[in-house]
Write a structure and sequence with these properties.
about 250 residues, alpha+beta, 3 domains, 6 helices, 5 strands, disordered C terminus
Length: about 250
């Protein structure tokens, strides 16, 4: 910027010299030239002040960022200390209740078998939740009391499911392919599915386990679609004609 200003100054001086040589009023030209030089000098000083102010601002920002980094490092160390302290407290609190641990593991095992045998509704997620409780309990991350409370809640969710009707989304396996589908679950006794391409069907079971069977008859398709429509309209009770999806053994 300063070099540009100096270039302008030189050009101005040359122009002024030429003008003065051909002008009869040299004094007036010199006064104008002096005013231009003073103006350029002031502009150069302003540039210097602006540059110095910018550098000071950058130094302040640098110092502020270093302070922020230092505070964040301190927070991380504090969190690590608190986590270690929490682990020690959990270990100490669990010393007098270790007798609960095998009972909780046994209860979680029974619930796990129940989930595997029940309708295939979000089975992977539910089993993962059970495994998380077991893992945290065995790893000493939670006390037996807390594990017992979480186990009780898991059993409560299983009981709630038996009384709950609604439409949900989950991945299903059909035609040897995983597809995201809507599922209409009626308690824990029946579950129907609907794919984005309007293919519908229901969950059934044979000697190998649960599988998803597509409804091929026109009346069955209409009945299942009517169920999904009713659920989306918040109609959870009433008289519905549905394909029989309570069959527990069926040959594929």
């Amino acid at each position: 910027m300063s070099r540009k200003i100096l270039s302008i100054a030189v050009a101005t001086l040359l122009s002024a010299a030429t003008l003065c040589a051909s002008s009869e009023n040299m004094a007036e030209s010199l006064m104008k030239l002096r005013a231009d030089v003073e103006q350029l000098d002031a502009a150069i000083n302003d540039e210097k002040d602006t540059y110095q102010a910018a550098m000071k601002s950058l130094y302040r920002q640098k110092n502020d960022l270093e302070s922020v980094v230092a505070r964040e490092d301190l927070k991380i160390k504090q969190i690590e200390r608190e986590l270690e302290k929490a682990r020690e407290q959990i270990t100490e609190a669990g010393k007098n209740t270790q007798g609960l641990k095998p009972l909780i593991i046994e209860a979680l095992g029974a619930l796990e078998e129940n989930v595997k045998a029940a309708l295939p509704f979000k089975t992977t997620e539910r089993l993962a939740d059970i495994e998380k409780i077991k893992s945290q309990l065995n790893g000493g991350l939670i006390t037996p009391e807390k594990a017992l409370a979480q186990t009780w809640n898991a059993y409560g969710d299983a009981i709630r499911m038996s009384k709950e009707n609604g439409v949900f989304k989950q991945t299903i396996m059909i035609d040897n392919e995983e597809r995201l589908a809507e599922v209409a679950r009626i308690g824990t006794v029946m579950m129907y599915f609907k794919l984005p391409d309007e293919r519908v069907g229901y969950v059934t079971k044979d000697a190998k386990g649960w599988f998803y069977k597509e409804a091929m008859a026109k009346n069955q398709k209409e009945q299942i679609l009517a169920l999904f429509e009713a659920f989306k309209k918040q109609i959870r009770s009433g008289y519905f004609t549905l394909p029989n999806a309570i069959v527990m053994t069926e040959v594929k």
